């Protein structure tokens, strides 16, 4: 019932956009990737090439396959280059105004049948769909980080999303070898509704002096069997993204239990966004990460 996706456009070449491009091209799809910042686009392509090289060195991908996958990825400067796509996935910064502006300039250049998706971690799919000219062909396709490693993809339907769009998205995720789950369109969906308040609580624990960065991360790794400590994970996700998700939860559910920790706000205001800026709860500028508090 769904349509087969062969050409995928990606807007935003940060950690998520580049990861999505990497897995799509490896699955045989043609990929067109855009970023408003040429340096971020170049970095994104570089991290895709490193990703393929890592897979080849581990014996998880043939060298010839990695070369063909790389050749299927085209960098584009303007949204006009996305016109031939069957599906365009927006993976830009977690900010509603940014995403709305993207959809406003994107839709006029697309063919009428092109599906549009957002990789938002938290923002209402129905509200974002309303910024497009095709709410029935709009859907949330929420990949997890790092995309090449994580098995899950959350699919979120907006109020107007048609069955065909949902089925096409499900088929697309299957083609990538990943598992789709369905979430209702509520703030932060399933994974981040549960995960981000836990991370925010870890930051409160640090803020109130209950433990140091190292104690909190070690406690959750060894005491709750988490593969990564919550502060390490926050740095990995990006503190700007964490704050944005907490704000969506706080405003969307109108419950004070989702209040973003003031220390998280302070780190974001300092531009300490985690790994991507080389400083967050840890400092990544040396050989080994060092706690910043
Ligand atoms: N980081 C995570 O763990 C994670 C996990 C799942 C989903 N997400 C979601 O994926 C999206 C991207 O997150 P990220 O971690 O890759 O962020 P990032 O900061 O690494 O990358 C965002 C990219 O978007 C680009 N961008 C911003 N405005 C743009 C525009 N108008 N046109 C084109 N490009 C634009 C930026 O230049 C940047 O390169 C967000 O919606 C985020 O919530 C993130």
TrEMBL record:
<dbReference type="Pfam" id="PF00725">
    <property type="entry name" value="3HCDH"/>
</dbReference>
<feature type="domain" description="3-hydroxyacyl-CoA dehydrogenase NAD binding">
    <location>
        <begin position="8"/>
        <end position="183"/>
    </location>
</feature>
<dbReference type="InterPro" id="IPR022694">
    <property type="entry name" value="3-OHacyl-CoA_DH"/>
</dbReference>
<dbReference type="InterPro" id="IPR006176">
    <property type="entry name" value="3-OHacyl-CoA_DH_NAD-bd"/>
</dbReference>
<dbReference type="InterPro" id="IPR013328">
    <property type="entry name" value="6PGD_dom2"/>
</dbReference>
<dbReference type="Pfam" id="PF02737">
    <property type="entry name" value="3HCDH_N"/>
</dbReference>
<comment type="similarity">
    <text>Belongs to the 3-hydroxyacyl-CoA dehydrogenase family.</text>
</comment>
<dbReference type="GO" id="GO:0008691">
    <property type="term" value="F:3-hydroxybutyryl-CoA dehydrogenase activity"/>
</dbReference>
<keyword id="KW-0560">Oxidoreductase</keyword>
<feature type="domain" description="3-hydroxyacyl-CoA dehydrogenase C-terminal">
    <location>
        <begin position="189"/>
        <end position="284"/>
    </location>
</feature>
<dbReference type="InterPro" id="IPR036291">
    <property type="entry name" value="NAD(P)-bd_dom_sf"/>
</dbReference>
<dbReference type="InterPro" id="IPR008927">
    <property type="entry name" value="6-PGluconate_DH-like_C_sf"/>
</dbReference>
<protein>
    <submittedName>
        <fullName>3-hydroxybutyryl-CoA dehydrogenase</fullName>
        <ecNumber>1.1.1.157</ecNumber>
    </submittedName>
</protein>
<dbReference type="InterPro" id="IPR006108">
    <property type="entry name" value="3HC_DH_C"/>
</dbReference>
<dbReference type="InterPro" id="IPR006180">
    <property type="entry name" value="3-OHacyl-CoA_DH_CS"/>
</dbReference>
